[in-house]
């Protein structure tokens, strides 16, 4: 009921605010008859709808598959581990909302060089941010997970590791195609989203029957590798008129930048125990953040590009 109430309130706010701010929306009529009249203009929107359906089928479908072939405890373990691992994915969600409209703005002004720089910066920064949060989750999960579940479910390290790796990779390969989504060139992505969902569900039924929740998680990772990591950076490079391997190099640069943070996480696990290891990693990460932001070529270039673009967007807004 609360979710429904917030949904109604947010939709009402959007309708009211668009009519207030956008002149073309003031005479907009909402109803079944206008919807039927506007059906002919939904070609591009239908592709976005198919993409959304594919994402829902992939995310929720694997839970149904696991519930059909495994006991309820496996479903609970998978759901809780995925919820914990998805915390690193919120770095992607927080950045996507404000960046996508700016990419549309750069495309509309035919500023292709800035569009490329913004894409490079997004890929590298999100890889580093998601990876850093994933390492923190890996260290804190043995302590936080039993508290969260009341000790009713054991932590499964293999399952958690697969989900964390999947999230970090997704932060890179999915971001590489933001330019296509922002500029309404998403049709080429639709088939790959559908393929990812289909491969994931088929493999989940196969691997889940023998390996349980870890097998279902592995199915999602394989689907991302075959239909995401292989295709999205290549499509993004082609759209941005770049050499085919350029965005793959940006992905590798973001992954290599995580090595110092991974070393800090390893030392935390080896030298200390419990919450002290987490505190050490947080302090070490804070100490590494400054030289990474200032000196590390991949991260420093990305931060500088974002700073220049943000200054330009602020001038345009004024």
Task: Describe this entry's structure for a reader.
It is a single chain. The chain contains 14 helices and no strands. It has 318 residues and is mainly alpha-helical. Helix 4 (72-85) crosses helix 7 (157-173), helix 6 crosses helix 11 and helix 12 (259-271) runs antiparallel to helix 13. The two termini are 41 Å apart. The mean pLDDT is 87.
Uncertain segments are none
Can you summarize the main beta sheet?
A: none
Oligomer: single chain
Helix count? 14
Radius of gyration: 22 Å
The counted number of beta strands is 0
Topology of this protein?
Blueprint lengths: L1 H20 L10 H6 L5 H27 L2 H14 L4 H19 L3 H38 L7 H17 L4 H5 L4 H43 L2 H8 L6 H12 L1 H13 L3 H20 L2 H21 L1
Helix pairs in contact: 3-9, 4-6, 4-7, 4-9, 5-6, 6-7, 6-11, 6-12, 6-13, 6-14, 7-9, 12-13
Provide key terms for this protein:
318 residues, mainly alpha
Summarize the structure.
This protein has helices spanning 2-21, 32-37, 43-69, 72-85, 90-108, 112-149, 157-173, 178-182, 187-229, 232-239, 246-257, 259-271, 275-294, 297-317. It is mainly α and 318 residues long.
């Amino acid at each position: 009921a609360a979710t429904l109430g917030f949904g109604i309130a947010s939709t009402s706010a959007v309708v009211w605010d668009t009519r207030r701010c956008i002149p073309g929306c003031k005479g907009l009529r909402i109803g079944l008859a206008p919807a039927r009249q506007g059906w002919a203009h939904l070609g591009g929107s239908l592709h976005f709808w198919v993409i959304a359906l594919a994402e829902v089928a992939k995310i929720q479908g694997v839970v149904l598959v696991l519930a059909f072939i495994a006991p309820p405890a496996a479903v609970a373990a998978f759901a809780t581990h995925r919820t914990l691992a998805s915390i690193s994915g919120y770095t992607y969600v927080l950045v996507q909302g404000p960046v996508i409209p700016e990419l549309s703005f750069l495309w509309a002004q035919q500023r292709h060089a800035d569009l490329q720089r913004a894409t490079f910066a997004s890929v590298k920064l999100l890889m580093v941010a998601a990876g850093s949060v994933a390492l923190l989750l890996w260290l804190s999960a043995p302590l936080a997970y039993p508290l969260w579940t009341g000790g009713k479910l054991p932590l499964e390290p293999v399952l958690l590791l697969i989900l964390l790796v999947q999230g970090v990779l997704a932060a890179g390969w999915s971001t590489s195609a933001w330019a296509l989504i922002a500029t309404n060139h998403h049709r080429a992505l639709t088939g790959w989203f559908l393929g990812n969902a289909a491969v994931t569900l088929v493999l989940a039924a196969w691997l889940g029957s023998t390996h349980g929740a870890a097998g279902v998680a592995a199915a999602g990772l394989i689907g991302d590798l075959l239909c995401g990591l292989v295709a999205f950076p290549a499509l993004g490079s082609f759209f941005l008129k770049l050499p085919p391997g350029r965005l793959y190099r940006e992905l590798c640069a973001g992954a290599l930048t995580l090595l110092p943070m991974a070393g800090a996480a390893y030392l935390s696990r080896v030298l200390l125990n419990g919450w002290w290891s987490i505190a050490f990693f947080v302090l070490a990460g804070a100490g590494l953040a400054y030289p990474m932001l200032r000196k590390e070529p991949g991260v420093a270039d990305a931060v500088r590009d974002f700073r220049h673009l943000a200054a330009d967007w602020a001038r345009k807004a004024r």
